[in-house]
Amino acid sequence: MTPVAFHSVSKSYPIYRRPVDRLKELATFNRAEFHGNHWALRDVSFETKRGDTLCLIGENGSGKSTSLQLAARIFEPTGGAVEVHGRVSALLELGAGFNPEFSGRDNVFLSGTILGLSTAEIKRRFSEIEQFAEIGDFINRPVKTYSSGMLVRLAFSVAINVDPDILLVDEALSVGDHYFRQRCLRKVHELRRKQVTILFVSHAMGDVQAIGTKAVWLEGGRVVEQGSPQKVVRSYLHRMTEKDAAYLRRRGAPAGAPAPAAVTAPEVVETIPNVDTRRGNRRAEVIGIAALDPAGNALHLLEPGRPLILRISVRAHERIETPNVGFTMRNHLGLDFAGSNALREGHPLPPMNPGDIYTVDFHLDLPELYPREFSFSPAIVDGDLREFEVCDLIDNALVVPMAGSGREVYGYIHLPCQVRANARLAGNAAEAPVAT
Questions:
Q1: Which of 85, 196, 220, 370 is the most buried (most CB within 10 A)?
Q2: In angstroms, rounded to a whole number, what is the distance separating the alpha carbons of residues 343 and 375?
Q3: Helix (H) or strand (E) segment spanning residue 248
Q4: Could you tell me the sign of the dihedral formed by the alpha carbons of 413, 202, 101, 128, in that order?
Q5: How confident is the model at residue 300 (pLDDT cuts 50, 70, 90)?
């Protein structure tokens, strides 16, 4: 049975120009309408499987919170059908469902009762709720005295400790401090292992890619794209970058310096092994990317401690006042692992004229990474590190595996490390021998 499914769901809210129009509509026997409609959702369809973590992403006002409210049965859809099977625990608006005059303890019992638990069950779980929330003596004080962080701690603790089949979380974790967020994310992974279905709204794309099994991108109340978090997030971020570039163009770019003479790099790479997606205005474009050793030979395997030259060649089709060439390195999960660009490394590039070709070499000393495939996504933009316009960005243009050293890598990376036991940090005393 599908835990949560939306079938062509639409939701509208009445918009009244004046407060009196609401009264006039209620008093009119012929059901005359004195309002307009705001459509928060239009024809939205998606479904989850048991144990899924479905992440809803999109700009403010795109319909993400409305979707969770419909799944929580706070509202009914205007059109279509919403299926929800199982006990739902929701963490929606901050403090929603809590009585501000009640103590935290009283609100735990109130919320538990609303979620269908008996008083005996709540008493049995209260210790776990209190320990996870970690708000100390405030558990016995009125909720109206809580900070926003304390409020979300208690609300999240209640939501996860009522054995939900379905957990709804609406951006609440962004309020918590780093320590609490890390604990919450670990708890989310634990709930996933218990096959709890999670609907998660967030603007933190790193969280979406880390915990999501599926993503749905909403825009203007409609589904733009749904699928794997990595693919949907890439599309969404590209759209946001293009939107920001359009905003900068509307503001008007400052007049640039006179165009320099045409430039063509002495060495140019013109091979792009792979194109997953490609975005940008194409005022300039990436024409090639390669991984090379210091002698210029192609590398087909990344090795720890071995120098790597990532070469990216770009061509301008229009005048580019502030070109900046860079790359993003992704791991096998599609998470952005590392990256840099010429300006970030203190090497600003001169303006480009139409037809100019630049080649930028990034000399990297790779640490020991876990033996999986890593991809490089090259890009050229026009602008500085704060405001820029994407000309061309190619997702996963080059994929190269990392060779294993035979030693286990804990986590994602083994930091270069030397061990000295019982050694002094200063002075002339002899150091203990290095452990190998």
A1: 196
A2: 21
A3: helix 229-251
A4: negative
A5: confident
Burial class of residue 394 in the structure, from the number of CB atoms within 10 Å of its CB (0-12 exposed, 13-18 middle, 19+ buried)? buried
Q: Distance of CA 86 to CAs 110, 184, 278, 346, 408, Å?
A: 20, 22, 41, 55, 41
Taking CA atoms, 281 is separated from 241, 314, 326, in Å, by 11, 14, 16
**Domain topology for 4-235:** Rossmann fold (3.40.50)
For the record, the structure tokens of 310 come out as: 């990532």
Domain ranges of the chain: 4-235, 278-406
Question: According to CATH, what is the number of the domain 278-406?
Answer: 2.70.50.60
4-235 matches 278-406 in fold: no
Joined together, the tokens standing for residue 372 give 């999986």
Give the pLDDT confidence of 315-344 residue by residue, as tens digits: 999 999 999 999 999 887 777 888 999 999
The answer to whether residues 122 and 112 touch, using CB atoms and an 8 Å cutoff, is yes
For residue 306 the two structure tokens come to 């071995």
